[in-house]
Amino acid sequence: MRKDVRILLVGEPKVGKTSLIMTLVSEEFPAVVPYRAEEITIPADVTPERVPTHIVDYSEAEQTDEQLYQEISKANVICIVYSVNNKKSIEKVRELDHTTYYLCSPFTVCVCFRVPLILVGNKSDLVEHSSMETVLPIMNKYTEIETCVECSAKNLKNISELFYYAQKAVLHPTGPLYCPEKKE
Ligand code: GTP
Ligand code: MG
């Protein structure tokens, strides 16, 4: 049995990483958030899979690339957050396709460490249409991507589901490239 799960949220500034974490914890959308949430630990008995779960935030404003890579190497699963109403943040996910970016991005590091990834489209309250069309080709290309989910911190939509999928990706991995021996 695995003793705990470490979930890291990454993504462009302002896509709502910190808001997602704070909303999960307080069950309401915070009006104001810091750049980076403190690491939180959810006790085993309140998680769906009964495993203590650490949730770790990332903020470009407060952390260096070096610190980001360290966190990536410690994570068991990484949520790549984009904002469904922000083309640029979706483009960043799309750029998984572009070798130049791919070679020097955190995503490369994820792929190297064989950490399962989850694509998270936040702020679904702001749009009518779904971003799935854009991200599906990326999902199909990278087996490290376990699943994708659209959610809204503001409407509390799919928040607990998102963290459940992340937990599940670690405890019940499906990706053929995932190599459990590598991460304890
Ligand atoms: P950095 O720490 O700068 O990387 O940003 P972040 O990704 O942590 O984003 P943050 O949680 O600070 O949210 C950025 C802005 O988006 C804030 O004004 C939030 O209130 C807003 N926001 C976050 N989630 C949602 C959402 O689901 N819907 C809407 N409408 N706004 C949101
Ligand atoms: Mg933040």
Automatic annotation (TrEMBL):
Cellular compartment(s): Mitochondrion outer membrane
Domain Miro: 2-172
Superkingdom as given in the UniProt entry: Eukaryota
Coiled coil (residue ranges): none
Function as written in the Swiss-Prot or TrEMBL entry: Atypical mitochondrial nucleoside-triphosphatase (NTPase) involved in mitochondrial trafficking. Probably involved in control of anterograde transport of mitochondria and their subcellular distribution. Can hydrolyze GTP, ATP and UTP.
Family assignment from sequence similarity: Belongs to the mitochondrial Rho GTPase family.
Name of the protein in its database record: Mitochondrial Rho GTPase
Complete-protein stretch covered: 1 to 184 of 623
